[in-house]
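Chain X:
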Amino acid sequence: MSKLDQYLRAATRDNTRQSYQSAVRHFEVGWGGFLPATADSIARYLADQAETLSVNTLRQRLAALAQWHLEQGFPDPTKAPVVRKVFRGIQALHPAQEKRAKPLQLAQLDQVVRWLDAASETARAERDRGAELRHRRDKALLLLGFWRGFRGDELTRLLVEHVAIAPGEGMTCYFPQTKGDRHYQGTTFKAPALSRLCPVEAYAAWVEAARLTSGPVFRAIDRWGHVGEAGLHADSLVPLLRSILAHAGIASAELYSGHSLRRGFANWATSNGWDLKTLMEYVGWKDVHSAMRYVEAADPFARRRIESALPGALPGPNPA
């Protein structure tokens, strides 16, 4: 690969590149389309897939096809009026309610951490190094992910050499690139040292037990206790999280996802008096609409507000 190709490749995040490649492959191989495409063929593609794919997936497919044409020097057919009109029609006839991850509550986090601590002690007593390491890793992953509101891909990309601990105060985590860092300036996040459910203590215990000095923080561990060289894949976090929650006795573990830690922290912060500006600065949100998607109202049905305004006794009907 030439230096030019390396720089071009680095300009796009790996997850985005892979999803775009998959989208283009689906258009060509799965549907039988030809590239470069015409506006009419893309409109037919949307119509054929409207009852199979979600609106968000179709939007991502259009973005991938648009990028392919622009990179190859062709006009972008996805901006044609017929394509836009078909897409609006699909939105009208196939409205999709946005699915949001179930937030992990602080009490549930405490329950899971207590289970992980007990399971880790049991594994140590049984000299099961693989199980002990996995429980320590999972505890660090959950606590750091919750208290920092990290995305799943951020946890998988965190490197040991980019973490610094200030004893008794907290830790800093540096990322050369994040989703919101469009200018590649790098972002540093700080996590506090806490008296309970401490992410700093859990991280330090995991790194020491796994003897990590560099490379990815969170890695796979085999049954014999061998820690892998590569970091966990982002797609493995959701099954891992659900497995941890299920073993810890959390009901409906299948409803949680990689965003559950982020949403859980956002809801905990707002219910404890954090204003939206402070929350956005802490988590790293640049757009208020993105932040609001993660925050649930403390009284979502307005029940308490309405009940508090109701009179003690409502007047009965007038007698005939």
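Chain Y:
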Amino acid sequence: MSFAWLKLYMPRGIYARAALILLLPVVVVQVVVSVLFAQRHFEGVTVQMADTVVREIRLVLQDLSDLPRGADVQVATADVADPLDMRVERIPAPELEAPNSRDWDDFSGLVVIRRLSEQVPEIRSFDLSSSAAVRLAVDTGTGPVAITFDRRRISARNPHQLLVYMVFFSILTTMVSFVYLRNQLRPIRRLARAAEAFGRGRNIPFSPAGASELRAAGTAFVDMRNRIERQIETRTLMLSGVSHDLRTPLTRMRLSLSMLEDDDREALEQDVDDMQGMIDAFLDFAKGDGQGEPERTDPVALATTVVEDAQRAGQPVSLAEVEGAGTVRLRPLAMRRALDNLVSNAVRYGGRAEVSVRITEKSLRFRVEDDGPGIPEEQRADAQRPFTRLDPARNQDKGSGVGLGLAIATDIARGHGGTLRLGHSSKLGGLRADIVIAR
């Protein structure tokens, strides 16, 4: 049997789930105890008290059986009824057929009516509408009479006390449990915030705390974060060092080429320019998303700046659509570099490109579309890997680069806690690249 449908009704937060785990057993225990209490107290005790009253009623009925019709029953039964604290009086015959009356929440009244009806068949009607007295309409040999006595003689006093105590102490223990539970859950939330911040490229202070299992998880996270930071630092230093060292021989090559004839120099200078572009791409990839600190940034203004710079460079780029407004925590230099790479790729492999921005309460989306050949769906994951070239799928005659454009954009998107999604542009027919970042 599958219980997957329960996930739709389960709370998502750890506090809400902990509260459910804590409160559900308390509520179940209260319901079970209430049912047992009602069965034992309202039924068991009421039945015992009703049996005692039954014997007293039979004494009164026995005394009434010897009276002639029309006699004053109140005076005649005074010797028996007064010591039993009961009052007997004659009533009209129609009152024998009156319906039973009681309050809707008078559960013990159900037991009283059932028990007295079984033990004293002469009782025709019950009036339990008053919480102070019980009035019985009885058909006797001397005519219809009403027997009235104190309600406390047949129902337990203060039956709600146990329920009140149970609810009070349940609330008290639940509050104490919440205080303890909050202290236990605080380290989990701190670990979640630290992990989320690190996934978005921010490093917030974190020290393991809480139970031993939580401390172990926190220590593992700190070790993992340190290893990742060391790997990023090593990669950055390695690529920066290699790229920097290559600039010196390239400069010497440019000086040497400047001394050659024009016909021989053009092809070689183009090769040097290509190598210079590769080195610049290596440096951009080495920087990753670590350029600058996150700050409140207007995505629309950022996209507008990228489009205007591209237009000044003679590239056919336009800002197509803007939806929503506001600011988002971004590294503006890194995000601008990602958009520049996407726009450059779009212009390189297509005739024109369009940039759009969408801002909602939950996410931010930058979209760059072109009218080029696009990328087949089965190759889109490979296209985001570093140093991957897909020239057969793209226009090979327009330059292939080093395969770092989409990789840099992907790296920057992940550093902001987002993702780069590639798809087919239904508007222009080429590639659609979306940078989606959760707010």
